[in-house]
């Protein structure tokens, strides 16, 4: 252990494992440690079910009706992957996909006035949707055609919209779209968590809607994918990638001290030994004095014996409750997976509701989501602080990841990964360069 490394990584959350894999591929000498005996950190998948009961301090053991404990892999922080999103690109380029199997999520729904509807994101679906009246459908269809054709390098496609100056509010007005349509477009398609985006330049929103449509076009049922056996498989896949490129992994390592001299990281002490390094990546729990609380999230894991009503009996789906529909500032998310993904016993479903906490009664805030899931067999409630680093790490060379937010997709996590990468290396994360590096070492055939 008394060795010199380029990078030491503490914690095996997805952010840390992806960065460890990327740095190893770049030829850096990486040491990766975790005080836990399992991968995934805060975003681990818990198995067997008995461990989930213990983790949430529930009395007794799971009833026999829940099947074998080993049949369960329950994500603590549920998220789906956008089929055309950044995480899938990272998985494909690094060929981590070879260690994982994915299933398409069967449906994406939005909440309106107490009921749920399928999210229309193609022209055909827009015309068939019961979310809108006839004239609204035509206007929404025109809007979707405009977005699909929009090219920021070709003024002819812009119809007078300036991507850097025109706000999204102005674009909606141009197509005369009503509040309900604005709600589901901004929150269930562009996946914003609040309405702050309305007064920002429209380009980011247009690109988000395109990402949703392109992701949907890949598989047809929804834009989301989910790995069999749960999200815990993702960090392990990137850990394997790091190991292939020479990274060293140590689980179950107590971290005694993070050694800083003259304001700069010099190493990490574990079990009396010191490993030296030039840069450190870690989750906030390892250096609490360099992180601050920026909010709270409530998550409720619910075990059901039935699919969610009005989802065409889907065995997996996402439901977004836009904040305006329930007089809130933040959306509420529900994602459901089931035995079909090898994460639950036969005939069982896991639905997880989450939102950003706004009041002193978080369980009341999440009630609209739980009402959609009734009857609920067992629920596990957690309220967690959200942490962000207090500085960029450029002086200390200590780079701290952000906590996982309430969203049910990984795009915000990927933004954090790219942000840390840029602060560590001084250059933007480049997917194409990553692919070249990998091919230089292995040739085009991947690892041998």
Automatic annotation (TrEMBL):
Coiled coil: none annotated. Keywords: Acetylation, Cytoplasm, Golgi apparatus, GTPase activation, Membrane, Phosphoprotein. One of its GO terms (molecular function) is GTPase activator activity. It is a peripheral membrane protein. Its main location: cytoplasm. It is found in: Cytoplasm; Golgi apparatus, trans-Golgi network; Membrane. One of its GO terms (biological process) is protein transport. The keyword Transcription does not apply. InterPro entries: FAD/NAD-bd_sf, GDP_dissociation_inhibitor, RabGDI. Pfam families: GDI. GO terms for cellular component: Golgi apparatus; membrane. Interacts with RHOH. Interacts with the GDP-bound inactive forms of RAB3A, RAB3B, RAB3C, RAB5A, RAB5B, RAB5C, RAB8A, RAB8B, RAB10, RAB12, RAB35, and RAB43; binds RAB3D to a lesser extent. Interacts with DZIP1; this interaction negatively regulates the interaction of GDI2 with GDP-bound RAB8A. Belongs to the Rab GDI family. GDP-dissociation inhibitor preventing the GDP to GTP exchange of most Rab proteins. By keeping these small GTPases in their inactive GDP-bound form regulates intracellular membrane trafficking. Negatively regulates protein transport to the cilium and ciliogenesis through the inhibition of RAB8A. This is Rab GDP dissociation inhibitor. It comes from Pangasianodon hypophthalmus (Striped catfish).
């Amino acid at each position: 252990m008394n060795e010199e490394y380029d990078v030491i990584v503490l914690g095996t959350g997805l952010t840390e494992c992806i960065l460890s894999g990327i740095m190893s591929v770049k030829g850096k000498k990486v040491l990766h440690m975790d005080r836990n005996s399992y991968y995934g950190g805060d975003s681990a998948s818990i198995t067997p079910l008995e461990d989930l009961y213990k983790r949430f301090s529930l009395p007794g053991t799971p009833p026999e009706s829940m099947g074998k404990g080993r049949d369960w892999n329950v994500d603590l922080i549920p998220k789906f992957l956008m089929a055309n999103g950044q995480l899938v690109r990272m998985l494909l380029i690094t060929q981590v996909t070879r260690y994982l199997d994915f299933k398409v999520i069967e449906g994406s729904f939005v909440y309106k006035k107490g009921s749920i509807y399928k999210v229309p994101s193609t022209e055909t679906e827009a015309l068939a949707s019961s979310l809108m009246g006839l004239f609204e459908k035509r206007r929404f269809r025109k809007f979707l055609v405009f977005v699909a054709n929009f090219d920021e390098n070709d003024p002819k496609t812009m119809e007078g919209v300036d991507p850097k100056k025109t706000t999204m509010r102005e674009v909606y007005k141009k197509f005369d779209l009503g509040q309900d349509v604005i709600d589901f477009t901004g929150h269930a398609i562009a996946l914003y968590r609040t309405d702050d985006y309305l007064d920002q330049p429209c380009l980011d929103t247009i690109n988000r809607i395109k990402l949703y449509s392109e992701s949907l076009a890949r598989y047809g049922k929804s834009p989301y994918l989910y790995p069999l056996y749960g999200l815990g498989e993702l960090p392990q896949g990137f850990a394997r990638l790091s190991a292939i490129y020479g990274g060293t992994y140590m689980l179950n390592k107590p971290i005694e001290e993070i050694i800083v001299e003259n304001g700069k990281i010099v190493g990490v002490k574990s079990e009396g030994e010191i490993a030296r390094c030039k840069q450190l990546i870690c989750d906030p729990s390892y250096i609490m004095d360099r992180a601050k609380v920026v909010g709270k999230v409530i998550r409720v894991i619910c075990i059901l014996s039935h699919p969610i009503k009005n989802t065409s009996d889907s065995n997996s789906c996402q439901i977004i409750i836009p904040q305006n529909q329930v007089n809130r500032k933040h959306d509420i998310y529900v994602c459901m997976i089931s035995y079909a993904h090898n994460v639950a016993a036969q005939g069982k479903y896991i639905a997880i509701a989450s939102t950003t906490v706004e009041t002193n009664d978080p369980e009341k805030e999440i009630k609209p989501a739980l009402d959609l899931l009734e009857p609920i067999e067992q629920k596990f409630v957690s309220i967690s602080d959200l942490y962000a680093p207090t500085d960029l790490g450029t002086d200390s060379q200590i780079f701290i990841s952000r906590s996982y937010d309430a969203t049910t997709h990984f795009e915000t996590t990927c933004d954090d990964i790219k942000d840390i990468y840029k602060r560590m290396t001084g250059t933007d994360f480049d997917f194409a360069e990553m692919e070249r590096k990998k091919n230089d070492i292995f040739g085009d055939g991947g690892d041998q």
